[in-house]
Every structure is written in C-alpha cells, then in structure tokens.
Specification:
By secondary structure, the chain is α+β, with helices and mostly antiparallel strands. It contains 11 helices and 19 strands. The strands form 3 sheets. Strands 11, 12, 13, 14, 15, 16, 17, 18 and 19 form a 9-stranded antiparallel sheet that branches. A 5-stranded antiparallel sheet has the order 1-2-3-4-5. A 5-stranded antiparallel sheet has the order 6-7-8-9-10, with helices on both faces. Bound molecules: zinc ion.
C-alpha cells in the first residue's frame, strides 16, 4: 500500500495540474477513510440506540447486533388443546388478545384451521411482550401451518414435508369370519372397513360370506424418516365370494372401478347393515327369527344387537315412516319408479315421511318391535312392486369409464393386478410345498 502511494506521488509530478489536484483529493479521502472507524463500529457506538425504524435495517448488516437479537428472541411455547377448548380460550391462556386472534382468522388457511382444533393437538406460539410473533400448528404428520408476524401484519404458509410411501400387501382365506381373517392377515380396523365398503355394493358382507372366500389387498402406508405416520389408500383389492371374483382398483379421480372400468359404487348397497355388527358373518343353519307362519317370508333378516345403525340401501325418498303391530317401527324408501326398499322392526326411526335420504345414511336403529321373537332387521327389496331377493336381484349398471380415461385406468391398473396375481401365485406355490 505504501509503495503504491509513493509510486503515485512520483507519477503525480508528470501529470497535468488538474489531474494532480484530482489525484490529491482522492488520496486524501483514502487516508481519511483508513483513519475513521468502520461503519460497523460506528453504528455500535451510538447510545442511546437509534429509533427502531432506523435501527432495524442497520442491524441486518451488523453481525454483532443481530447475534444479540437472536439471543433475546422469545422461545417457542407449546400449548396443548384441551377438551372443550377453542382458540379463544387457548389465546386467553397464552395471554394474547382477542384482536390478535381475529387478525389470524382473516388469513384464508388459518381462518379454517383454527376453528377446527382438536383435543391433544399441540400448537406452538412465540410471544414477546404479550405480542404474538409466530404460530406453528401441525395439520398432519407432513403439513404444518406457520403464521409469522411481519411489518404489514400476519402472513401464513404451509410447510410440507415429503412423506415416503410404501406398498403393503395382505391376503387371506376366510375360515370362520372375515374380521378375524383380516386381522390375522395384518389389516387394521380402518383397512378392513374400507375393504368391506369397496365391495359392499357387490357382496353382502353380513349374510353372503362363506368359508373358503378369499381376499387380497394392496395398500399404501406413509413414512417420515423411516417412522410410520399414517395409512394411505387401498390401491387395488380382490375378493372372491362363493367362487365369484370381484376386483376394485383406485383411479386417478379417487374413485374405485372394477377391472373393466365399471364404477364400484352402485345404486344399492347389498346390505343395509354394516357387517361388523352381525354376530356371525356366516351361519349356514341360520334360524328364522320371526314367529309363526302368518305370511310368507320375503326378505332378508339381519340379526345384530339392538341399536345397530340401519342404512338406506340407496338414494331415495321416505314414503312411509310409521308403526304397526306386525312391522313394529318401519321405514319404506322409494328409490325410483322401479325400486322400493323396506326396513322393519326398528327400535328407532330417524327419518320422516317425504324426507330425501342418501345411500348409507342411517335411517333408524335395529330393534325388536312388532311381531318378532328376537331383535333383527327384516329387509325387503321390491322391483315394480314384486318382492325380490335383495342379495341376488339384478341391479342397475353403474357408471363406466370410457374413452381415453378408460385406457389410462386400464394401463394403470394392470401392474397393480399383476402384483396381486404374482403374490397369489407365490403363496399358492408355498402352500403346495408345505400343505397345511
Ligand atoms: Zn324377516
């Protein structure tokens, strides 16, 4: 530096006077700057501190000051949602004002999420001098809603972690009942109910299962850093009921279709009672629960505990909801000009005449009212006024995928079904080498 300065001084003499003056001024400035303290230490010397507005932009560039700031940053405090809690109560516990909560609820995502807090959820709040600086609210294993205070108020964002998805497979042959077979195969209660719901338009799980029926299911489980967090969807499933094979595959639209692209969801459920309420899934020597032989029996009987929910088999309108000494409490539903379903001996009726009902909606509870010896649901299915067996009657065809959508579905379902078939063949081969 010094050598450069000396060289410059020598060169100066050879330069025109105006240039010399300019160079001298520059040199003088350089010397002055070296002598003065750096801008950093300059800012640090100010006491008392500059007004907040001036100081904030400065501290961003000053390592010494910002370090001090982060040490002073308020810690995150955890608040657990208690029974009967609301955000208003939780904010009160945290010493925050209703106005602050009101501001947060103006944010689109927070507005919804904060209304739906559930007991045992944990929210993290960052509070300084009674002011909320930040809020973290985990929505699921992967998603956290993050609210931060900024100059212009509060802002929100959803932090999303990427979950790993693993495929799981289970299959079993039913020997005594579906539930036990499914549990033994490693299915959770959720997956079991989902599986039954998938095939509930084709198979009466309460009455039509038989020993030797078989199922196979391929589903997803989600993991975060190797830890299981939650269950994904069923991807594909197969159910063999009394020799008949049913398949369901999940499509991109979130609905399930059979292997030919026909919707699993149909106009009627096969059974108006969920199978898990039925004491025995199958009993070839089922005794008839109705007394006497006053009139021919023309329906299906479901024996289950009093109070079991009874579902509308399809969308329709309630044409009767009443009581008489034979039927007890009964509900009749008209589904179109062709179909009527009847539900007898109810303990409670939960719908009124003229009311529209949706498939699967609870219309009453199972009871023992009217002429019966034991609690059961007597269910009738009428086609053009004629009683038909609800378990075997031909029902309206469901929607089918078509065109490009069907091609996409078939292409996507092929590897899933192949996987099930492959696993089945391995299992069969194993059973042949090690017969049970
Ligand atoms: Zn009956």
């Amino acid at each position: 530096m010094l050598e450069t300065l000396l060289a410059s001084t020598n060169q100066l003499r050879q330069l025109p006077i105006r240039h010399r003056i300019a160079m001298m001024v520059t040199l003088a400035l350089m010397v002055l700057m070296m002598a003065l303290p750096s801008p950093n230490s300059l800012a640090a010397q100010f006491t008392p501190p500059l007004p907040v507005k001036l100081r904030l932009p400065l501290t961003v560039n000053l390592p010494s000051l910002s370090e001090t700031d982060s040490e002073q940053q308020a810690p995150w405090q955890q608040f657990t949602v208690e029974n009967g809690d609301s955000m208003a109560l939780l904010f009160k516990r945290a010493g925050l004002s209703p106005q602050t909560l009101h501001q947060l609820t103006q944010l689109p995502q927070a507005g919804k999420a904060l209304k739906n807090i559930k007991p045992k959820q944990v929210l993290e709040l960052q509070i300084e001098d009674g002011q909320l600086l930040g809020l973290r609210y985990p929505q699921s294993a992967s998603d956290t809603l993050v609210i931060s205070r900024s100059d212009s108020g509060f802002s929100e964002q959803l932090e999303q972690l990427t979950l790993q998805t693993r495929q799981h497979y289970a299959s079993a042959t039913i020997t005594s009942n579906f539930w036990n077979a499914a549990v033994d195969a490693g299915l959770t209660a959720n997956t079991i109910m989902e599986l039954a719901a998938l095939f509930g338009w084709d198979i009466d799980f309460a009455l039509d299962l038989r020993a030797g029926d078989h199922f196979a299911v391929l589903w997803q489980e989600h993991y975060l850093d190797g830890q299981h967090v939650d269950q994904g969807h069923i991807l594909a499933a197969e159910f063999v009921n009394q020799g008949e094979v049913f398949r369901a595959i999940r499509h991109q639209d979130g609905n399930y279709y059979g292997d030919q692209g026909r919707a699993m969801k149909k106009a009627f459920l096969r059974a108006p009672v969920q199978f898990n309420y039925i004491s025995s899934n199958f009993n070839p020597r089922r005794l008839h629960p109705v007394t006497g032989r006053v009139r021919p029996h023309n329906g299906a009987d479901y024996v289950a505990p009093v109070g079991t929910p009874i579902m509308a088999a399809g969308d329709g309108t309630v044409v009767s909801s009443s009581y008489n000494q034979y039927n007890g409490n009964y509900v009749f539903i008209k589904h179109s000009n062709t179909y009527v379903t009847k539900y007898l001996h109810l303990k409670k009726r939960l719908v009124n005449k003229g009311q529209r009902v949706k498939q699967g909606q609870t219309i009453g509870t199972l009871g023992a009212t009217g002429r019966v010896t034991g609690a059961h649901l007597h269910y009738e299915f009428l086609v053009n006024g004629v009683h038909r067996n609800p378990r075997t009657v031909k029902l309206p065809q469901s929607r089918s995928l078509s065109g490009q959508e069907k091609q996409t579905f078939l292409a996507n379902s092929k590897p899933l079904l192949a996987q099930i078939a492959h696993r089945q063949s391995i299992l069969l081969a194993r059973q042949e080498t090690n017969p049970l």
